[in-house]
Amino acid sequence: MKEIQYYNRYSQTMETEQVYGESFLQWAYGNPLGKIALHSFVKRPFFSKWYGHRMDQPESQSKVLPFIDDYDMDAAEFADAPESYATFNEFFYRKLKQEARPVSDAEVVFPADGRHLGFANIDDIGGFFVKGQQFDLAKLLVDDQLTERFRGGSLVLSRLCPVDYHRFHFPVSGTPGETQLINGPLFSVSPIALRRRLAYLWENKRTVTQIETESMGTVLMLEIGATCVGSILQTYQANQAMTKGAEKGYFAFGGSSTITVFEPGKIQLADDLLANSAKQVETYARMGDTMGSIA
């Protein structure tokens, strides 16, 4: 399997991802028997619900300290001591100290920790993960009016690994509406899976929120479910003004993604994000760091 490499904005170096559950992903998405299991039960919500339930059991607490050690995590960032989490899931959607994620002065910030891809024009995404396969905005949004409004706009895909901080935040200041749920299966959204089928992004269970802003029109934020993601939970209050960097919600156990979509001509994405994405390289950046500015 091709290694997953990304550019770390902070060290300014290329790094190789330590993939959680790598052998399982290779088997499920690359082995013929694995693909049978994938379509028989792995993609189905009950499998992720079962796995999430396991992570809610008291005995799962024993996994916390080894996980922190294996992935060299900085426990000093945690709002609570590692020993205080009663289950692995509590640790998974942990809160951080406020100073651990300062919010940039930029008008647009990353909504989550993760590895990010940015595209100035959605229409140019075709063939990025899978040669010859176009990104299907209409199937992602399942709303003809929204699709026409955002066609030709900009898009940022933020991929969270299990090791990442799993709360997601508002990328812009504005007033968010109610979150719309679009049900679907729960395929992995790891590059291991997306290299084989980009459509998992718009087939998976996902949520869509419209954020009304003063200077950027409407901004869409989507949370994409994935294998072993127990839940996508929203913690914000709809129809109340929110500042960029304010918490929107969190994912229970599993790797997942957010997608942020902007109307055409409204945003200038960060230079490093665009340059790396043009080379098919993700940029690692933390929640609250600069995503872009008003065009």
Automatic annotation (TrEMBL):
Name recorded for this polypeptide: phosphatidylserine decarboxylase
Name of encoding gene: psd
InterPro entries xrefs: PS_Dcarbxylase (IPR003817), PSD-B (IPR033177)
EC number: 4.1.1.65
Keywords: Decarboxylase, Lipid biosynthesis, Lipid metabolism, Lyase, Phospholipid biosynthesis, Phospholipid metabolism, Pyruvate, Zymogen
GO molecular function: phosphatidylserine decarboxylase activity
Cofactor: pyruvate
Superkingdom per UniProt: Bacteria
Biological or metabolic pathway of the protein: Phospholipid metabolism; phosphatidylethanolamine biosynthesis; Lipid metabolism
Any Gene Ontology biological process: phospholipid biosynthetic process
Broad class of enzyme this protein falls into: lyase
Keyword hit for Ribosomal protein: no
Pfam families reported for this sequence: PS_Dcarbxylase
